[in-house]
Amino acid sequence: MAELVLTSLGELPRSVLEGQNLGYKRMGLSALLVIGGGALMALAVRFKTGLVGVAAASVVGTAMSGCLYLRVARSNVAWFGFTAPTADSVKRVFLLSWWLLLWNGLMKVMRGSDVVLLGLLASMELVTSYSLTKYVPETITNLVAMVVFATTPGLGGLIGAGDRDRARHVRGEIMAYTWLVTTAVGATTLVWNRAFLKLWVGGGHYAGPFATLLIILSVIQFVLIRNDSNIIDLTLQLRTKVLVAALSTGLSLVLGGVLVRVFDLGIPGLCVGLMAGRIVLSLAYPWLVGRFLGLSTSRQVQACARPALVTALLFWPATIAGKHASAGSWMALTAWVAATVAPVCLLAFCLGLSSAQRAGLRSRLRRTFPAGGTRGGLRMESPRQ
Q1: Could you read off the pLDDT of 49-104 as tens digits, one per residue?
Q2: Would you list the domain boundaries of the chain?
Q3: Nearest-angstrom CA–CA distance, 351 and 331
């Protein structure tokens, strides 16, 4: 409970920094604090302090992160501060944001319902296998989401200025980048996840190649949905977004529950049910974004065909290879993963993206990480850039 309160408070200065397009001001220290928080938890486990020690370490890490955000916000945002709100202000904010509040609740259900369904309708053993198998792809895609979220202020500036041509271009870059990373990570995970779990917790917790494939596909679907969800937030068309999400979430829960409990399909049934219910979002959200940005549905479908085909061509042999791939040590696994992800990423880049998309991503990388380099090797761009 203490961590929940501190996390909510820490979101205030962090959100102000992102809204002012100043999120990069705390990137390095923020990463160090994540490592430091992990180290504290490792120490708590090492000295056998139990759940109390682990929870206390998490609270300390969250508090340190919140203090960092607060200090950076005070240093870089002149108007940042705290004051007691009036009743009128509270009412106005509540009336403006209740759809967003409902969306956050639905997001919690979408992100946590899979584990709850398995625990209630199947067994805790399946929950363990599912959670461990899902750990790597979900962790990597969360890092992708951090990069996407960092572009939100700039994209919001374009939408607010009515520059729909550039907004469409930025949205296309976001989707191309997301697909490229998730496909490369997904294919590599399909090959080496069994070996990773064997070294980490034992091979008995591996969910199997088919279940792993479905887990990765469900994660990729959710990440792409979340991208368009963030863009819809910028258009302020929240009512339709939330109502569609409520329908999709309910459908996902029903289908997933039926396939797990009635048909006893376990993890594959859960993934199929969740993905089938989320098809509503996969269709509705791009349509909402396209309607606002002037992007036709046929054009979006056409743009998806090539990446979808390349994903299938990469995931099929990767699933087969995952049945036989093994590594005797963490060092060997690290080397094999590095040797796998690079060519897979190159294949996805060359085969799945159009020439214009490849040129756009190369140009974006050159501007972000210039060869000559600004000091520190990273140059952040203003919303207009």
Answers
A1: 999 999 999 999 999 989 988 998 999 899 998 888 888 888 877 777 788 889 88
A2: 1-82, 88-368
A3: 31
